[in-house]
Hints:
Layout: H1 2-17, H2 21-40
Amino acid sequence: MTRLMMLLLAAALFLGGCETTKGVGKDMQKAGGWIEEKASK
């Protein structure tokens, strides 16, 4: 039960930080760019 609550809280914070679906796309691009940068090193 606690694990579910933590997952829901994390999802709410993530989605709350993105104002629109366009914002979600930009966040995903930033995360992808960071991963590519770390993988290329």
